[in-house]
Sequence to fold (216 residues):
Amino acid sequence: MLTKKEIRFVLDTLKEMYPDADCELNHSNEFELLIAVVLSAQATDALVNKVTPDLFKKYKSPEDYVNVSLEELQNDIKRIGLYRNKAKNIRKLSADLIEKFDGKVPSNYESLVNLAGVGRKTANVVMSVAFGEPAIAVDTHVERVSKRLGICRWKDSVLEVEKTLMKKVPKDEWSATHHRMIFFGRYHCRAKSPNCPECPLLEICREGQKRMKKRE
Fold:
């Protein structure tokens, strides 16, 4: 496991590599962000961004999603994986927004996680990106990077990873670190072909050092 000094080195290095890292899901308001994040579960941001331009032209409010048939909505998001289940969740969460929150996306975590199809990751993304609240959303990139580097344990659950990062990363850096870890995992420390030879974190990365030894 990394020391406090090594974690500081990781955070500073990620900042140097990706100073402007931010949410890559296209959206123009908190409702569009919520829908986009729900759609992104087990799907790439790039794919979601191909679907949402037409989707957001057609559906501008929770009422729009509720007022079409389930089949029509499914057809509109059919290119995205798990589209049947996601369509059901989007209609249900839209109905809940209308009934409980006057059609607005709630700005508190507990209300968000009680919406259909909204888990911890989605709620944290919305809280961070839409409302500017410190949060760490653990997706596959954040989990992989934090475990490879040794910030978290291999056996840690997603919730344990989130709690560990919240404890080891300064709170005012939570949101930025979340985005930088995603960029690092997406563009450098990829799942199948991490760029270990050119990684500025190689000297403290247990996984990277193992991979480099295998190359020798």
